[in-house]
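dumping this here before i forget
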Amino acid sequence: MLKNIRNLDYVILLCEEIQTMKTFYHEIMGFQIYRGDEEWVEMKTGATLLTIRKRGRPYDGAKLPNSASVQLAFRVAPAEVEACYKELLIKQVEIIDPPRDMDYGHRTLFFRDPEGNILEIYADI
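structure:
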């Protein structure tokens, strides 16, 4: 039955400081809050929900210091990569790698969320 899986419905991003992450993804990234509470927040990102959840369940494990837990990639139109970059600079988001064309056919930029996860905005070129 596993072969019947057809799409990714939601991603759960484990975090230490849920309010800080909620503020970043809602106010900085502009994602609409779908539902949530003090320990769980779902935000719409196209057809997929990005969910942030406070770390603390026995099977979560500890976040390693100075390491990302995940890399998330968000697709935009080619002309929008530079505009996103400028907006992130204005909002004082930590940029890892400014926009550039990659050998594999993407124009991409990399930056971090407040807990050090790697985020990418890219376009097919």
